[in-house]
């Protein structure tokens, strides 16, 4: 049972890592846009 749980965890982590490679650029753009909006509100 522990082996199955460990394998499932590793597979989920691998899938998350692979998906993260595609979405990391988009997340960076979203964070940048949020920062720009905060700067506009502050000035």
From TrEMBL:
Coiled-coil segments on the chain, per record: none
Q: Which InterPro entries match?
A: Entericidin
- According to UniProt, the name of this protein is Entericidin A/B family lipoprotein
Which keywords describe this protein according to UniProt? Cell membrane, Lipoprotein, Membrane, Palmitate, Signal
Species, as recorded = Modicisalibacter zincidurans
Q: What is the annotated signal peptide range for this record? A: 1-19
Family statement drawn from the similarity comment of this UniProt entry: Belongs to the EcnA/EcnB lipoprotein family.
Organism lineage reads as: Bacteria, Pseudomonadati, Pseudomonadota, Gammaproteobacteria, Oceanospirillales
- Short name of any one Pfam family annotated for the protein: Entericidin
């Amino acid at each position: 049972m522990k082996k199955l749980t460990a394998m499932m965890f590793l597979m989920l982590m691998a899938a998350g890592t692979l998906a993260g490679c595609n979405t990391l650029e988009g997340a960076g753009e979203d964070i940048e846009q949020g920062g720009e909006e905060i700067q506009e509100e502050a000035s």
